[in-house]
TrEMBL record:
PANTHER family: MRNA CAP GUANINE-N7 METHYLTRANSFERASE, MRNA GUANINE-7- METHYLTRANSFERASE. This is mRNA (guanine-N(7))-methyltransferase. Its EC number is 2.1.1.56. Residues 1-58 are annotated as: Disordered.
Length: 398
């Protein structure tokens, strides 16, 4: 096979990565009745001040997240032929391959999973192939969930697993308040091309991690993809100005970081913003860096132990050449990328892929506690058709 050395674009096909008033809605089922009339609070036990620094929720940061949500909800679905014409088609294929290998390595048959930032439901087929036992899809983009994800779930090749869909900002609300017990104690939580939006403030980052740790069983995995901040800083310092680009993408910092340094005393590791443009996907979208040491340290406070952190370039090579992974990864490569290098990335796309990394965290706990959590959790509801009115609409949905 041939291989040359994103924020995930809104790719409307299988494996697309996606990447109102806040009021919980309910269906007619017993489970949904538990949520009727619930107003989900943004407040939690995160301190509002720490060492004199105010951590009250920043309205401007929330509006930035809402803008991203509205952008993805407004994008029209494309046919496979239209997607193939995109200058980032092969990059999209690579992103889907990376997500597929992550899921195939961590998700087991009958696992209960959460797709955090599920977007239009583009990864539903991946979970179907994994034969999961229960699925929770969460995204801030209301119409992406209510219109597209639900339609995909109920589609011609309807998924065999029961599911719950939630529209709301998982970096603001407490998901444990709206999900009954049998919809928690999950085996795997996946967050693809989205966790960097939680790093706008410490409070949002903590809420994201608190939701993960409350949802995961002991020994469960938190997996995903995000921006590689080490690469962003390196490329920024190599640039003449505050921007770097190629024909596929552009990253631009503002004068706040004109000295090209990011001391902890200045940022705390949060709110290090830049604008990102990706051809055929987003234009000047505000995103945040994810300093690895800050994120790993914060995750550890919530019992999440780092298992793996790899740049996309390193991840691809380790998967395709690793003794334990190459057979499975190679098979998926042929399925997603095409045989004989059919979808070999351009140099520009491969450079764009270099901006991202994969991560895997494991929820702390002994094998005994993990086995006990699985054995004692309640059965999930039966699979049924999901109506748009069944979508739980929480605070932050846009």
């Amino acid at each position: 096979m041939t291989l040359k050395r994103g924020r995930e674009p809104a790719n409307e096909g299988e494996g697309d990565g996606d990447g109102d008033d806040a009021r919980a809605r309910a269906s007619g089922t017993r489970d949904a009745e538990e949520h009727r009339g619930v107003r989900v609070r943004a407040e939690d036990d995160v301190p509002t001040t720490k060492d004199g620094v105010d951590f009250e929720r920043d309205v401007a940061k929330d509006e930035a997240a809402n803008a991203v949500a509205r952008h993805y909800s407004s994008r029209s679905n494309q046919s496979h032929g239209e997607r193939r014409k995109s200058v980032i088609y092969r990059l999209r294929c690579l992103n889907n391959w990376i997500k597929s290998t992550q899921l195939s390595s961590r998700v087991r048959e009958n696992d209960r999973v959460m797709d955090l930032a599920c977007g239009k439901g583009g990864d539903l087929k991946k979970y179907a192939r994994a034969k999961v036992g229960f699925y929770v899809g969460v995204d801030i983009a209301l119409e992406s969930v209510r219109r597209d994800a639900v339609k995909r779930y109920n589609g011609e090749h309807a998924n065999e697993f029961p599911a719950v869909f939630i529209a709301g900002d998982a970096f603001v609300v407490d998901l444990a308040e709206v999900l009954p017990e049998h919809q928690r104690t999950l085996d795997v939580i996946s967050c693809q091309f989205a966790i960097h939006y939680s790093l706008s403030t410490e409070q949002r980052a903590r809420r994201a991690l608190r939701n993960v740790c409350k949802m995961l069983r002991p020994g469960g995995y938190f997996i995903g993809t995000t921006v590689d901040s080490n690469v962003l800083v390196r490329k920024l310092r190599e640039a003449d100005g505050l921007a770097f680009w190629n024909p596929v993408y552009e990253v631009e910092f503002d004068d706040t970081f004109k000295d090209k340094t990011f001391p902890a005393s200045k940022t705390g590791g949060f709110g290090i913003e830049y604008t990102f443009t990706l051809a055929d996907a987003v234009t000047k979208c505000r995103e945040c860096m994810v300093p690895k040491d800050v994120w790993v340290s914060l995750a550890a406070e919530y019992g999440l132990e780092l298992v793996e952190w790899q740049n996309f370039h390193d991840y691809v090579h380790s998967q395709l050449h690793g003794k334990e992974t190459r057979e499975r990864a190679g098979g998926l490569w042929s399925q997603v990328m095409g045989d004989e290098g059919e979808n070999t990335l351009t140099d520009e796309e491969w450079e764009a892929a270099y901006l991202y990394c994969t991560f895997v965290f494991r929820m702390s706990g002994s094998p005994e506690s993990a086995a006990s959590a699985v054995f004692n959790r309640k059965p999930v509801p039966e699979k049924r058709k999901i109506e748009q009115s069944d979508v739980l609409v929480l605070e932050g949905a846009a």
